[in-house]
Design a protein that fits this description.
mainly alpha, 0% strand
Length: 354
């Protein structure tokens, strides 16, 4: 993943802002601690910030740096974060050729883990074994989600793969719903899946790759598992220390599958290891470091429900980025399927806590 989009984040983000955002205290009920922070259970809409955290006036020596993105509307910061995530995913696809899917995924998680460990410096001495076990399980789920989704986008259009994967958090939201009316949103999401899988087209106008679909549904399953552990880990680790720990575990879990493939790609005749590693490092910044910093700044100033509604647009953003970056043009059935899933997610979010 080249770093051509890095300039787009220069205005709202700096190294200091990233460090401060990643080190912030957790919300009352925890913040996301997985590889992708696009679903958050912690905190009721409009809930107060934790003691010592002032949403509009961040303190500390990085306060001035954080006030820059604070001037940008919070919804815009969320959209920028989503576009960074999806752009990072799209720009990782060209690396699958020289480094392989598992090799690229392993290197990306490894770089991200090193960055997050250096920034957050997690303290583990006061953690209970069950807390460490939860972080480890979250890391394994995150690694599985990342690897399976990478395999999906290697075989499917990005919009299709992202929409199927998004069924994970949507399924969790519907399972924990307490109203019978949520059956409508489940049926709407199911209709979207039917449109995507049965009527959707792959690259070149052919039918969708069945192996790619299995990867996508597997990523959705891992996504739902990691959501359940995100709340536990976020409640016991300060800021993004849990993210750093789980990311490290995820990289280690993928090492047996990706290390050899990455090494072969870096040492292949005619390969440029420095350029490849630089590209992977750029991918690691696009996902997850910079998006998390932007999201954390935005969440200090906006209700949880508004954030969740914005995140429901992720499949649509993925389809748009796939079109612009990879030239993936989706058919009418695929667009309709994405629209159904997005509508189901928005509907479940707006009616879930009434």
């Amino acid at each position: 993943m080249p770093t051509s989009r890095t300039s787009e984040t220069a205005a709202p983000t700096s190294a200091s802002a990233v460090a401060e955002a990643l080190a912030m205290p957790p919300a009352p009920k925890g913040e996301p601690a997985g590889e992708r922070g696009s679903w958050r259970r912690g905190g009721e809409p409009g809930s107060a910030a934790p003691p010592g955290v002032h949403p509009d006036r961040p303190g500390g020596r990085f306060g001035k740096a954080l006030r820059r993105p604070a001037r940008i509307p919070a919804p815009l910061l969320c959209l920028i974060a989503m576009f960074l995530v999806q752009t990072g995913i799209a720009l990782s696809k060209p690396l699958f050729g020289p480094l392989g899917v598992s090799g690229t995924t392993f290197l990306r998680l490894g770089f991200a883990a090193v960055i997050l460990l250096a920034v957050t410096r997690p303290k583990l001495r006061d953690k209970r074994p069950r807390d460490l076990a939860a972080a480890a399980l979250l890391g394994v789920a995150s690694a599985g989600m990342t690897f399976l989704f990478a395999g999906a986008i290697d075989r499917l259009p990005m919009g299709t793969a992202a929409t199927i994967e998004f069924l994970g958090p949507l399924a969790v939201a519907l399972v924990f719903a307490r109203r019978a009316s949520h059956l409508v949103w489940a049926l709407l999401a199911a209709a979207g899946v039917v449109l995507l899988t049965l009527l959707g087209e792959g690259e070149g106008g052919g039918s969708l790759d069945p192996v790619g679909l299995l990867y996508a549904f597997g990523a959705a399953a891992c996504y739902s598992v990691y959501i359940l552990f995100t709340d536990k880990v976020g409640a016991t680790f300060q800021g993004f220390q849990g993210l750093a720990v789980s990311m490290t575990v995820g990289a280690l879990a993928l090492a047996p599958f990706g290390l050899g493939q990455a090494w072969n790609g870096l040492t292949a005749p005619g390969a440029s290891p420095v350029l490849l590693l630089a590209a992977v490092a750029g991918v690691s910044l696009l996902l997850p470091v910079l998006p998390y910093a932007l999201e954390m700044t935005a969440l200090r100033r906006m209700p949880q429900r508004v954030f969740s509604v914005l995140v429901s647009l992720e499949p649509a953003v993925s389809a748009l980025v796939g079109l612009v970056v990879l030239g993936q043009l989706l058919g009418a059935a695929q667009l309709a399927g994405i629209g159904c899933v997005v509508a189901a997610s928005v509907g479940a979010t707006l009616t879930g806590r009434r």
